From TrEMBL:
This protein's name: Kojibiose phosphorylase
Domain Glycoside hydrolase family 65 central catalytic as annotated: residue spans: 299-672
Entry's family note: Belongs to the glycosyl hydrolase 65 family.
Keyword Transferase: yes
Domain spans labelled Glycoside hydrolase family 65 C-terminal: 683-744
Binding site for substrate: W334, D335, K585, Q586
Stored InterPro entries: 6-hairpin_glycosidase_sf, 6hp_glycosidase-like_sf, Gal_mutarotase_sf_dom, GH65_N, Glyco_hydro_65_C, Glyco_hydro_65_M, Glyco_hydro_65_N, Malt_Pase/Glycosyl_Hdrlase
GO molecular function, one term: carbohydrate binding
Length: 756
């Protein structure tokens, strides 16, 4: 057997499934998906069995948006041809699926190598058997390239074998422009976007190349008579390219990329891909001792996070289901900036920068949305596709199957502050002044300008933001959402900081930028006054933020009475009653506490968490992770671990949520956040990092790898001896504050701070 087809032996590095359950096949498509940030290939079986082909294999291409349904008018990530399809006939009869065959099927996600492997034995209707091993990968070293290897062994000699390898659904979504034997070009219906695919296939039997017996466009077929013990190996290399304009032809690029891969040969492609994965693991690894489940959950999270981004494409961002499924149509939400960006900033700054560049390139869309709604500055789209236009559907089918209006596209405006927050974090984490001057400053200023026009002065000179939706989407058209207002104030203040910084350090840049934005001192003065007068809903007497004006007088519902429910709480209570109640869909004030803990004076963090956590229905996959970060920071590590486990179950167990439509990438980012910002207690400061670790009892140790301002460091926190060991692996000396004590790190020493 070829080494490429043998999985990593360490079970911590694999997700395995034995058996084949057609009912679960679509959810496996998400869990076992492979992706490189440009191509996402769902992990459904490629081998055709039975008379009808029902498995939904699917390849998603980042940024390939089209608006196929003009009536709905919403761009979606469109279907591309399925390049993985294989059909095997033995004595003229197809392979069949019979109940009970399952035990001979294994699907293995090899996370270390970024590959999907399967091992199976199938029979045809006359019980002639074939043993198959497959490997699929989307190359991390050359993102246009995907590879399929299939090794087959017919169990009997003298059998007539037909192997067909094809691309299916050639005209399913995009319009074919040119379809040849091994090259196709398709174009979008409503835009200039085009897709090209080039392919090279070969079959070797017992080590010898066998020419295809029949060929037609994107269809190859081989026929031979088997010999016992004979091994066949199908190799399919494909290259996929996208072009966004009419002048650039994607076909040439696809041929060129394929040529490079062919030069390497499949084993070279595998080796380069594995080396790229090894590098990602080195830069982002998290090791937990004492809790194998948590270790596996973190590996699974890092696997999908490392596969979701592409540092080379500034025109795309990460969708709510990454490239693993169709839910949310490939649209981008605040999920990226709040749940994913911290991971990239601190382990893969090049990817983080590209993701923020996407927001820069869509800034005009955000300006247009603000202007259309009568405000100034930039209001980002709640759901964003390729050009920054608002793409949230106006209506959807609610949990009670009635059509409901979706107001998020108009009212969920905190997204603008979330983007600003990520820009600031990126700058804090990387010290990338060029980015701040050329890109970040403009985003911060334009979003601050939006908030300063959005918050309106009323009685007693207080400014209010009325008619919004906060992260808690159960409550619409509310006034003064604490999350929105405090984030807006923070956004304005950081914009004022950046204005002062540019003016002092890069005056030419400031005069150019402020001139272009027509930003004068009197406007900055106005921003300052909005920041000081904005209503936040904080009551110094009780230490509580009111989630929004009037929240405290809504109906209190004891969610403990509904423990064990299998459907979201708004389905149990009904939409109207949920809206009239204090039940929170997802972390809202708690999310504010996670993002801006300094806005919670004294022990008001504990007070707010104690008040809001029991009121939360966790109706979103994003919610528990944020509760986990906060619980860990507040020292309730066991509650935090429960939130961690429930978050990991979303995509790894079949109990919590539907995952047919893709993995919940924000929840996966949240697992990393709980480990790093929660249990390790990391905080970013102007010119240093700090840690305040508190591990759950089961975790003997936690080791994390971080990049910070061109340095790479590894931190290991050991429970038993209560020690923190920090190794600066690369970069200039730096300061790390651990539980208030300062450690000076240099590349030559590994200080250990021990309380034990
Ligand atoms: C959540 C949003 C989230 C979106 C995409 C919704 O259910 O409420 O906060 O951005 O899903 O993940």
């Amino acid at each position: 057997m070829d080494r490429a087809l043998i999985p990593t032996s360490d079970p911590d590095w694999t997700v395995r499934e034995i058996g084949h359950d057609p009912l679960r096949e679509n959810s496996r498509g998400a869990r076992f998906a492979i992706s490189n940030g440009f191509l996402g290939v769902r992990g459904t079986h490629a081998i055709h069995h039975g008379g009808r082909w029902v498995a939904k294999s699917r390849t998603l291409v980042a940024g390939l948006f089209d608006t196929p349904d003009e009536a709905q008018g919403i761009p979606v990530l469109v279907a591309t041809p399925d390049w993985t399809h294989v059909r095997i006939m033995l004595q003229g009869k197809p392979l069949v699926h019979r109940p009970g065959d399952g035990s001979s099927q294994q699907r293995i996600l090899d996370m270390r190598r970024g590959a999907l492997l399967t091992e199976s034995r199938w029979l045809n209707a006359s019980a002639i058997g074939v043993r198959l091993q497959t490997l699929h990968l989307a190359s991390l070293s050359q993102r246009a390239i995907a590879l399929q290897l299939i090794q087959l062994e017919i169990e009997e000699g003298g059998v007539d074998v037909t192997l067909e390898a094809s691309f299916e659904r050639l005209d399913n979504g995009l319009l074919p422009e040119r379809v040849e034997q091994d090259l196709g070009v398709w174009h979008a219906i409503s835009s200039n976007r085009r897709l090209a695919i080039a392919a090279a296939l070969s079959l070797r039997i017992d080590g010898r190349d066998v020419p295809a017996t029949l060929c037609s466009p994107f269809h190859w077929s081989w026929t031979w008579r088997s010999r016992q013990g004979q091994i066949g190996c199908l190799e399919r290399l494909v290259s996929v390219t996208r072009s966004d304009t009419t002048d650039a032809g994607p076909a040439g690029d696809a041929r060129h990329a394929l040529g490079i891969a062919q030069e390497l040969g499949w084993s070279g492609v595998v080796a380069a891909h594995e080396a790229a994965w090894a590098s990602r693991w080195r830069r982002s690894e998290v090791v937990v001792e004492g809790d194998a489940g948590a270790q596996q959950a973190l590996r699974f999270a890092l696997y999908h996070l490392n596969g979701a981004a592409n540092p080379d494409d500034e025109r795309v961002s990460i969708a709510a289901r990454a490239l693993t499924g169709d839910d949310y149509r490939g649209h981008v939400f605040w999920d990226t900036e709040i749940y994913l960006l911290p991971f990239y900033i601190l382990t893969w700054p090049e990817a983080a920068r590209a993701l923020l560049m996407y927001r820069f390139h869509t800034l005009d869309g955000a300006r247009a949305k603000a202007a259309r709604m009568g405000w100034r500055g930039a209001l980002y789209a709640w759901e964003s596709a390729d050009n920054g236009d608002e793409t949230t559907p106006s209506h959807a089918i609610g949990p009670d199957r009635k059509v409901v209006e979706v107001k998020c596209g108009q009212q969920e405006q905190h997204i603008s502050a979330d983007v600003a927050y990520a820009v600031w974090q990126y700058w804090q984490g990387t010290g990338d002044d060029v980015f701040l001057c050329d890109v970040g400053a403009e985003i911060l200023l334009e979003t601050a300008r939006f908030w300063s026009s959005r918050a309106q002065p009323e009685a007693a000179g207080r400014c209010h933001i009325r008619g919004v939706i906060g992260p808690d989407e159960y409550h619409e058209s509310i006034d003064d959402n604490a999350f929105t207002n405090v984030m807006a104030r923070w956004n304005i203040r950081r914009a004022l900081d950046v204005a002062a910084l540019l003016r002092a350090r890069w005056p030419a840049r400031w005069s150019n930028l402020s001139g272009r934005l027509c930003l004068h001192d009197d406007e900055l003065e106005h921003w300052r006054s909005v920041a000081t007068t904005i209503t936040t809903g904080f009551d110094p007497e009780t230490g509580l933020f009111e989630e929004f004006a009037g929240y405290f007088s809504l109906e209190e519902i004891n969610l403990a009475d509904y423990a064990g429910r299998s459907v979201p709480i708004d389905v149990v209570l009904g939409r109207e009653r949920t809206q009239r109640s204090q039940v929170v869909k997802q972390a809202d004030v708690v999310a504010l506490l996670a993002l801006l803990p300094d806005e919670f004076p004294g022990d008001s963090g504990v007070t707010n968490f104690g008040y809001y956590a029991p009121r939360c229905g966790h109706g979103s996959s994003l919610s528990r992770a944020v509760h986990g970060i906060v619980a860990a920071r507040l020292g309730d590590t066991e509650a935090a671990l429960d939130f961690f486990r429930e978050t990991s179950a979303i995509d790894l167990a079949d109990s919590h949520a539907a995952i047919e439509g893709g993995v919940h990438i924000a929840g996966l980012g949240g697992l990393w956040l709980i480990a790093v910002f929660g249990f390790a207690g990391l905080s970013l400061h102007g010119d240093y990092l700090s840690l305040d670790p508190k591990l759950p009892a089961a975790w003997q140790s936690l080791a994390i790898t971080l990049e910070w301002r061109k340095r790479r460091l590894r931190i290991r926190i050991a429970q038993a001896v209560d020690s923190v060991e920090a190794t600066l692996e690369a970069g200039e000396p730096m300061k790390l504050i651990v539980r208030g004590k300062e450690l000076g790190l240099t590349c030559t020493e590994t200080p250990v701070l021990s309380n034990g």
